[in-house]
Amino acid sequence: MQSNFRLKAGCEFYPYDGAKDKEEFIVQTPDKRQFKISALSKNILQRLDGTRSLDEVACELQARSISISTNELRNLLLHQYGKLNILEGEDPELTEYDRKRQSAEIKPPFLLHWNLIPEKQVGWLAARLTFLYHFISIASGLVLIGLTHVLVYQQHAVLGHISNAGSLVVLVLCLVSILFHEFGHATAVAKYGGTPGHIGFGLYLLLPSFYADVSMIWRFRRKERMVVDLGGVYFQQLSFVVFALLGHFFSTPEFFVVCYFIDLMAWFNLNPVFRFDGYWFLVDYLALPNLYKHSLKYLGYQIRKVLGYSVQAVRPQISGYTYWIFLIYALVCNFFLIAVVWFSYRYLTTMFFRLPVLLPEIFHSIIIAFQTHDAALFGNRLVALFFAIAFPGTALIGMYKYASLGVRYFRSKFGAYRLP
Description:
By secondary structure, this protein is mainly α. 63% of the residues lie in helices and 10% in strands. The chain has 3 domains: 5-103, Alpha-Beta Complex (Outer Surface Protein A, domain 3), CATH 3.90.930; 110-285, no CATH class; 305-413. The longest helix has 51 residues, at 321-371.
């Protein structure tokens, strides 16, 4: 006898502004997780009220010319939605999914992470910064950003000596600019009527990073999501304006060094190869979730087609100039990743040869700083020691991750395609 399935109380549905040729929705779970589903899936899930049997639901779908048997419906619900923890029922397999999920260890990309600013405080401040997204504020801000870049790169291109204490100041100000970056995302969420979540701090792999909970953006229209995507870089460039003016009026080189780092971080964030702001902007612009997987599959399909393999077409449902943007992204992204792996390898080999010399030098400086009670030198050398370990460590973990993905991919595809 088939047991009844029931959608968990507290699950909510919101329209998703994605592909133009089909209707899609976001289902939000009681614990605030969100998943994109089709209109048919929404219709099926809404019928699971605990009173209808799967036989009855299947009959209702068949009456709407949707050919599906009771067993097919059960398998769909179990394998597609059982793992999402949005269903309740006495089905043994569904209960096993729920048990595994509760006992599974959640493994975020952060080795260590802390909630730095609570949701309530983030929402309060973000609501008061929304004026920065008004048209006049944006136009004025862009003008100031342009003028201060001219100021920094033409009038103050040659910097003075940075002391040990100055290096620590640069680090702190860079962290402040990154925090302002996260408030840029949060403020954009508030601008469009959403409630931003907390802002946290952690180690992304081995590198320090802030992060903001802006998961509500999946309910926004595509253009609004694109503004949220770029909001962080926009706010961080506003911090560039502040630091550039402070450096100019007080003749302090540390502020200009921070400006250079802000631009470096902006270029890194806007690079669509990595899953940072530029990637999510392109995802929303093209309306292609899992953009990188789409590009990898499409490029692989084209290569196998040229080599004469019998393959099924995997072209995404886009056309016109957006298709050419996608194609350029697919080519650039994959070749860039190959270059990143190569340069990471060169960096690691060079760095590991240097570490036996570099680490003793840093430790010797730390001892001297401790003996001379030079707090600035002591702090500077501790930071240098951290990054001397963190950068190659992160590169090593990244290479291991991509190598593992590559091995798993080729194992899954080995023998799947044969020459005709």
